Amino acid sequence: MIDVIAFDADDTLWHNEPLYAEAQQVLAQVLSPYMDPEEVDRALYATEAQNLPYYGYGIKSFALSMVETACQVTGGKIQGEQILEIIAAAKRMLSHPVRLLGRAEETLCELAKSHRLMVITKGDLLDQSAKLARSGVAHHFTYTEVVSDKTEQTYRDLMNKHQISAERFVMVGNSLKSDILPVAALGGQAVWIPYHLTWQHETVTPHQIGGLCYYELDDISQLPGLIKQLDGSQATPNAPDGS
Amino acid sequence: MIDVIAFDADDTLWHNEPLYAEAQQVLAQVLSPYMDPEEVDRALYATEAQNLPYYGYGIKSFALSMVETACQVTGGKIQGEQILEIIAAAKRMLSHPVRLLGRAEETLCELAKSHRLMVITKGDLLDQSAKLARSGVAHHFTYTEVVSDKTEQTYRDLMNKHQISAERFVMVGNSLKSDILPVAALGGQAVWIPYHLTWQHETVTPHQIGGLCYYELDDISQLPGLIKQLDGSQATPNAPDGS
């Protein structure tokens, strides 16, 4: 029997990565006199990775890394006007309407009738809380957890806090690295629903998957069926190669 | 009898405002060819206030507002090199050692023997959690709450979440606006310990204080004495004029 079904939010419940892609296009445009868009992407990713211990995840971190990248790749020659364009792009991200993924709302509505639901999301506290409030689906969730990272320890702490045993805990998300592998490693039920765009930092190489088992669905609307199977203990997780 | 003693963190348990002041000096230095330091402070505060709904509180928000201010007050003429100086100042803030206020540690140690302690702090989730971890006093706290703002609703939600009644809840902090008035308005016990520097946004005008009662201490080491009185219900809050 499943106790709690937890959901990642960005790119699991609502579209998120396209907002980042759009802002990156602004950056690429601003830096086009200096380098190719692909080089800009690489430079930005390197800056983001370096800044992660300082800034953590989220749009404000992304904005600061965009500004820093712009200053660095231009050898300090970029001007304030162009920096303001980058900041404006980040602000558009922060006030963008929340666009739910298809069938996310009906699925949450159905599952909330039989199970306690939780959101577990990383990023800026204010931004994530505000998006949940704007999403129109906040009332389906018994618990909301904004965390600064999603590691095994994060999930262990959350299970302890809410007194949920791993085998009765389901985590649903689009990131193998953040949503699936740490939960599977703890003996929890992990359900991977890939999103068509994924941030480089969230990808994993095959050797990181080890012998861990998780479920894979094409679409969130398939989730109630899987949960019914799990409640009856009839489901068998995919092998780690996804077969 | 007091159930839970909650503490603000920045400028209540550890020094914080001096880090902001130091970074603002860097900004003033960078902008010195364009305007006076006082004008820079005013422009920065105006930008911060405008950005609050987008960014919320914390160092990353402050950093983005510094960059934006620099671009604006120079009419877009500032160059990337100088922006990098501002970003470097923000990163120094994020990795700065945590410097506890005098006698904060002993006081927490003493109070933790008899009461459950809580931290309630607003700002960046990662930064606030990391500071608590670095502070060496995290083990004294039963609960840690990082919130995006500190309003009456925030405190009401936290009291509900932890099932604490207002009259058995003590909030200790340096900000009348964020730590004291909302708690006093809910019928909680609020203990104001002023810090010698206070961010403009956290100051209140006398008419906001209304008829609310709170305690005022010079130093955190006086807190155990007050808590003993409150446990015995012998204390009388100061009148709102602080007399």
Outline the structure in words.
2 copies of one chain form a homodimer. Chain A is α/β, with parallel strands linked by helices and 243 residues long. Chain A is built from 9 helices and 6 strands. The first copy, chain A, has a 6-stranded parallel sheet with strand order 3-2-1-4-5-6, with helices on both faces. In chain A, strand 4 (169-173), helix 8 (176-185) and strand 5 (189-192) form a beta-alpha-beta unit. In chain A, helix 1 (17-30) packs antiparallel against helix 4 (80-95) and helix 2 crosses helix 3 (59-73). Chain A is elongated. In chain A, 43% of the residues are buried.
Short description:
By secondary structure, chain A is α/β, with parallel strands linked by helices.
List the helices and strands and how they pair.
Two copies of one chain form a homodimer.
Chain A (H helix, E strand, L loop, with lengths): L3 E4 L9 H14 L6 H19 L3 H15 L6 H16 L8 H9 L3 E7 L2 H11 L7 E5 L4 H10 L7 E5 L2 H10 L3 E4 L22 E2 L6 H9 L12
Parallel strand pairs in A: 1-2, 1-4, 2-3, 4-5, 5-6
